[in-house]
Design brief:
Layout lengths: L1 H20 L3 E18 L11 E4 L1 E14 L2 E15 L3 E2 L8 E24 L2 E24 L7 E8 L13 E13 L2 E10 L7 E4 L6 E4 L2 E17 L1
Antiparallel strand pairs: 1-2, 1-3, 1-13, 3-4, 4-6, 5-6, 6-7, 7-8, 7-9, 9-10, 10-13, 11-12
Length: 246
């Protein structure tokens, strides 16, 4: 009898250990703020390194689906699909200090899909409460990046004298200079309580999103290569909940 009792106890202990090590999985949704950032580092290898360098920051909304799966203890993966919408508008500015020189500004509208895969580690600081660190790649596909350039001659009344719309992903304009596909590597941290979580991080662009373009010098007729360099980065912070988690 003692022998059977001991076997039952051992079996129960083994089941308890197995249950404790059972990987957790969850499927949920998140929503948050995103700041896509277009960096122009070198517009042309023929220009000085710091010539015309600029940063365009857009502000918008990110929504998505996420799946979490633990592999061993706190180590696991997080993967999902995001949609990002962002806009931005620059201030009116002039390239000259003369008051009669026309002022101009640019407006941007941006739509993007993202597929991300993160490796993460969750530190349990209390029952069902975790701190997490994560890092991994994201494949971004730009759907639309529309730039509208406006110019006004009368700097007091604001009457527009010129307006031009450019699809930065298109082929019909010399300023259509960006590729739709981009790859980033992100790092971030987060907090989870039961089914609810908060995550925030930064994605660094890994590839040059600019197309190599050619222009013809109107004076000499020579063909000029413009080897533009830059990055497409992104800040983000998201809140969400797991619809299913065990």
């Amino acid at each position: 009898m003692k022998r059977y009792f001991s076997m039952i106890c051992l079996a129960l202990c083994a089941l308890t250990v197995m249950a404790a090590e059972t990987p957790k999985q969850g499927f949920g949704v998140h929503i948050g703020y995103a700041q896509p950032t277009i960096r122009l580092n070198s517009p042309n290898t023929g220009y000085p390194k710091d010539s015309l360098m600029n940063v365009t920051k857009l502000h918008g909304l990110k929504v998505g689906l996420v799946y979490d799966g633990s592999i061993y203890k706190g180590f696991g993966t997080s993967l999902g699909l995001n949609y990002t919408f962002a806009t931005s508008k620059t201030d009116w500015a002039s390239m000259s200090t003369f008051s009669t020189f026309p002022q101009s500004r640019s407006q941007y509208m941006y739509h993007q899909l993202e597929l991300f895969v993160d490796w993460q580690y969750k530190f349990e600081i209390a029952k069902e409460t975790y701190l997490m660190l994560y890092s991994g790649p994201t494949i971004q596909y730009g759907l639309v990046l529309k730039q509208t350039d406006q110019q006004r001659l009368d700097n007091t009344s604001g009457t527009l004298s010129k307006e031009e719309e450019i699809n930065r992903y298109g082929k019909e304009h010399t300023n259509s200079d960006l590729r739709q596909l981009n790859v980033t590597w992100g790092v971030g941290a987060g907090f989870q309580y039961k089914r609810y979580f908060l995550r925030g991080g930064y994605d660094f662009g890994l590839i040059n999103p600019y197309k190599n373009q050619q222009f013809v010098n109107t004076v000499t007729g020579a063909t000029i290569d413009r080897n533009t360099r830059g990055r497409f980065d992104q800040w983000e912070i998201k809140i969400g909940m797991y619809l299913w988690y065990n």
